[in-house]
Amino acid sequence: MKIILDAMGGDNAPLAIVKGAVQAARSQDDEIVLVGPKQELTEILESVGTSGLVGKISIFPASQVISNDEAPVKAVKTKTDSSVVVGANIVRDGLGDVLLSAGSTGALLAAGFMVIGRLKGISRPAICSIYPILGKQPSLLADAGANSDCKPANLLDFAFMGSAYMEKVLGRENPTVGLVNIGTESKKGNALAQKSYELLEKSGLNFIGNVEARDIPRGVCDVIVADGFTGNVILKLTEGMGIGTLRYLQSNLEAEGAMKALGSLKKEFDYSEYGGAPILGLAKPVMKMHGSSDEKSVASAIRVAADFARGGVIEKISGVAEK
Hints:
The chain has helices spanning 15-25, 38-48, 72-78, 83-92, 105-116, 152-168, 191-201, 228-252, 256-269, 295-310, 313-321, and strands at 2-6, 31-36, 57-61, 98-101, 126-131, 139-142, 176-180, 206-211, 223-225, 277-280, 286-288.
C-alpha cells in the first residue's frame, strides 16, 4: 500500500506532517510518499530521524503550495506543480493508493474532481466526517461541507456512499441511515427533505427515517445524511459546544475522579483519534485531514487512509452507482 501525503497542506505543515508520517511508518508496513519541496522535506526528515525506515518513506518533489485564501479551481488549474495537485496526479496514474491532505478543502476537492475524477453514476463527491458519540461508536456525517446546494438524488448518493464506508472501513454491518430534518414525520421539512425521504425509503438501505439534530449526539443512526450546508453547521456547532463544555468543566471541577472522567471525555471529542474525513464519490481514495492536524492526528489519518484504500469502498460504491 502506497500512501501519498501532501506534506505542505495544513496549519502545522510541513513539520507536523513529516513527524506524523514517521510515526505512522514505525507502526505500519505501508509506504508513505511525502509530496513537497525535496530539499526542505529532506532536511526535516534528517532532523526527525528515520533510522530503520529505509524504503518506507520517500519524497516526490513539488515546488508550489496552494493556500486557504486562494480560489480553489483557479489555483488547481494554474499551480500544476503544487503538492496537492501533484499528489492527485500520482494517485490518478496508479502510482499511489490514497491521497491525504490537511490543506485547503476547496483545493483538495477541486484536485480530486478535476484530476482524479468522480465515479461514474455518482452525481457529486461528499466529505464524510466521523461524528463522535459519547460512550458509543461514532457515526458518519455525509455530507459535511462539500455541497451547499443539493438535489434529492445527491442525498441518496451520500447515503449509499456513507453506508459503504461504514461497512467496509468501520466494520458496521448493515448500518442504519437517518435523514436530518426538523421533525421525525415523513412529511416534515422542505421539498428537498421530503423528496429525499421518498428516495431513501425505496433505496434498500437500512433507512430509519428522519432524525432531529438534538438526537444526533445520542447516536440515533450510523450514517447521518444531510446537504453539505446543514452538515457543516451541525459539525461545527457540535465542535464548538464540545470545546465550550470541556473548558467549563475544566475550570469548575477539581476532584481527582472528576478530572479523570474529564480526560476520557476529552479523548472522545478529540478529532485526532479518528484520523481524516474521506471524500467519497471520487474514482480513487482521497482523505481530508483537519487543518490544524498535529503529529498524532496525521499518524491516525494515515492508518485510517490505509484501511480506506484496502477496504474496497470505491469498488462497492461503483457497483451500486452503476446499477
